[in-house]
């Protein structure tokens, strides 16, 4: 699903109006119908909607929604926060409003009297996504007051006061429990600092032109489904590929085991773990399927072993910071010619020695969380700036960077960003990243495409977490449970292909 800027969304609206053809008023009616039907589905009629309407097209949406909810039997009221003279479509919907069914709230004080009612459904239709300056004065006071009021809160298109495509400067922003947006998500919905305002968000299809959507480029996409690459019916273990996990020094072998098990359950034909002498039994007992590259060092990794026949190396989970291990990492960067996946401690090495970024082979996959990313490329004041840096660095070094988190962002060497739509906060636990790194290693030899591998692995990883929380409480879910649920996630993706 493409994520368009506000300007591109306006173009999509206009293209649809001109080429369907449909009037702007009827397109507004279509969008408002989708909202009203969604509310009817999720909110019983003991809720009493109050639509707080501006005077632009977002306010016009609100008036149309008010009329429809009243028709459905809700006790609906409208507060005209900016008066009765607005855009053409606002004025048309104001004329259509059935005052016998919809009450117009007169005065701010009358609105305040309803702020203690838990069954009020506050619907924000003040400003749409075109807002580009902070809300001030009386409207800011109104928003701040509603935010403190009892009841449920829904934003139409985007919470008023929130900027769609850039960091928000103002402090008065509607705090929605749910945001109902049209056709496309806004980039702002995927930004961590906006969670308190956006709440849960839902995209309502209003039938904008498919021709426009298909032919218009966007730098951002949201991955809603994936297509898995399957091995040939006649495949042998070599065809499924060879992956080596270089991870886990003494007392830290859990990370290596998690990564290796994840690779094993993600399609790899042969899995190998490089292990220091003291931990060989840990690998053999935990993963009998794994081969071992025996490192001569007792407590850490330091040997550059033969990797020439390996399709992919996963380097970094709990690797440790011994000097000999750092030297091993540099030797790998200088000599290994296959696919590299760098995670955790390997990323710390890079951040401490940024000149090593020049040694990364084209197509290397980095998997930092936000803290690791900022250590690598500098601190950022907001996530919008971080995403710009993500694009720049992926292009500069011709690598794939998977920035982990809710809506993990995967940047291509061309600077395209693919946001992941799966996953939840049950996965915010040590070891989840090790599982993801192992999955990437296990999936790459079949796809032979590092970008697609990163996208697919992130999606499956998150889907496993979503499946887990259908069975267990989020606090109970562990990285090992993610691996146990991989088969269900894989089946779900295969069935939708």
Structural overview:
The chain is α/β, with parallel strands linked by helices and 497 residues long. It has 2 domains: 2-217, YjeF N-terminal domain (Rossmann fold, 3-Layer(aba) Sandwich); 237-495, Ribokinase (UDP-N-acetylmuramoyl-L-alanine:D-glutamate ligase), CATH 3.40.1190.20. 41% of the residues lie in helices and 16% in strands. The strands form 2 sheets. Strands 1-9-18-17-16-15-14-13-10-11-12 form an 11-stranded mixed beta sheet, sandwiched between helices. Strand 2, helix 3 (57-72) and strand 3 (76-80) form a beta-alpha-beta unit. Helix 3 (57-72) runs parallel beside helix 4, helix 10 packs parallel to helix 16 and helix 17 (450-471) packs across helix 19 (486-495). Homotetramer. It comes from Marivirga atlantica.
Please give a handful of descriptors for the protein shown.
alpha/beta, Rossmann fold, 18 strands, eleven-stranded mixed beta sheet, 16% strand, elongated, 497 residues, 19 helices, UDP-N-acetylmuramoyl-L-alanine:D-glutamate ligase
Spatial order of the strands forming the largest sheet: 1-9-18-17-16-15-14-13-10-11-12
Number of helices: 19
- The percent range for strand residues is 15-25%
Shape annotation = elongated
Instruction: Average the pLDDT over all residues and give the rounded result.
Output: 96
Find the count of extended strands (DSSP E, 2+ residues): 18
Might you state the CATH topology name of the largest domain? UDP-N-acetylmuramoyl-L-alanine:D-glutamate ligase
Binding site for K(+): 58, 124, 160
EC number: 4.2.1.136, 5.1.99.6
Domain YjeF C-terminal: 220-493
GO molecular function: ADP-dependent NAD(P)H-hydrate dehydratase activity; ATP binding; metal ion binding; NAD(P)HX epimerase activity
